[in-house]
Known about the structure:
Layout: H1 8-22, H2 34-38, H3 45-48, H4 58-77, E1 82-86, E2 103-108, H5 110-123, E3 131-135, H6 143-149, E4 158-162, H7 171-182, E5 188-195, H8 203-218, H9 229-238, E6 242-248, H10 249-255, E7 269-276
Parallel strand pairs: 1-2, 1-4, 2-3, 4-5
Antiparallel strand pairs: 5-7, 6-7
Amino acid sequence: MEQGRASRTALSIALIRAAHRVDSGARIFDDPLAAAICGVPDGEVGAARENWIPDVLHPWILVRFRVAEDAIEAAVAAGVRQLVILAAGLDTFGYRNPYAGLRVFEVDHPDTQEWKRERLRAAGIGVPESVAFVAADFEGDDLGDALGAEGFDRTAPAIFVCLGVVMYLSRAATLRLFAFAAGLDAHAELVVDYNDPAATRSAERRAMGADVLTRVADQGEPWQTFFAPAELARELEKLGFDGIVDTSVPETLSRYGFDPDPKYDVFAGRIAHAVRR
C-alpha cells in the first residue's frame, strides 16, 4: 500500500465477505460484522461490492477465512491463548471472538490501522480488551519489538494467521515473519496462503490474473513473492515447522463440500497450515 493511504484491497475483501452473507446459496464463511465495518447497509452490499476483484476469485478469498478460523478453534482447544493476525485489514474476528481468554493481536500498517479504527467507531463496533492493535511495517519494523510492546508473550503458545500477505511482501520480509513465528519459546502454528507461479493455467485465467495484478500494482499494492509448494515446505521445515498441510484452491473448497471447479484457481492459490512443537 502507498504511504498515507489505507488499503483498497482490504476494503474490497471485506465487501466480498459482506456480500457473501446476503447472497443466496450455502455459505462458505460467515462474517456478521463485515457490512457494518464497511459502512454499507446489508441491503446494499451487492451493489457496493467493488468489482475489480473478479467473482471467480471470491470462493477462494472466502474459504481462506474458513480454514483460518477452523485452525484457530482447534488451537484454542489445544490451549493456545494468543492469536496474531498479520495484515489484519478490516478483519473482524477480534470483535466476534467467542473464546474467553484468547488475546488477539492485529498487526498492520499504521495508516490502515487508523482507518480501521475510524471504521469501527463509525459502525459502533466496540474494541474489546482482548484486542491489541500492533502498528508495524513488515518491510522495515521488527515484529517482535512491535508485538512485545503490546504484551505478546514469546514464551506462550501462539497461532499466526497470514492471509493475503505473502504476495505483497518481499521474500526477505516474508521469511522474517515465518522465522519470528518459528522462534517462539513455545508451540507455534502458522496459517498462510500463497501463490504457486509454476502451476499450469489456461490462457484465459492467465489473462484474468494479469489484469488483476496490473490493477493492484496501479493502486500501489504490487505482488512480489511467490512459492512453489515444495519450496515453501523446505523454508518452513528449515525453521522447525512440521506437520504441514498444504492444499490448492479446488482441494480446499472440496474439503468443505463446495464446488472445486478449477476455474476458481486463477492465481494457483494455496493455503498451508504448519506447526512447530
